[in-house]
Predict the 3D structure of the following.
Amino acid sequence: MKRKIITGALVALAAVLGAGTAHADPWQDDTFVKVLANYGITFPSVRQASRIGWGICGEAAHGDSMAQITADVMAATGLTADLAQRVVWEAGFDYCPHTRVPF
């Protein structure tokens, strides 16, 4: 069953994560969205997905643990722990592989 992330939850998560799209790259965005869609995780728009991805990188860069970031994603979206963790992992891989994220 596909799990839809609602627009309000994405806005809340972006606010919590302090997300931005200053580093937007269409290839990264498309990859992030497509991989998550394979797990039944969808976003209302690619732009919102990008904001979430970069926001996760921002939290990681500030030293937040994967557990804390995953909890933030769960609280904002209602995703299960496994799906929220998948979002966090994919964001780290697609948006910030060059940084030393804590996961």
